[in-house]
Design a protein that fits this description.
mainly alpha, 2 helices
Amino acid sequence: MCERFFATLECELLDRRRFASQAEAKMACFSFIEGCSPPRLHSTLG
């Protein structure tokens, strides 16, 4: 599962653009990861 995630990250984000700085690349990765995982509610909160 982890290998599939990183393959998707590489294919959909990293191979499609160039980054001006390491900070820009980190923010793009962070945004990609946050966009992939929907928020989960705690079971007792509904």
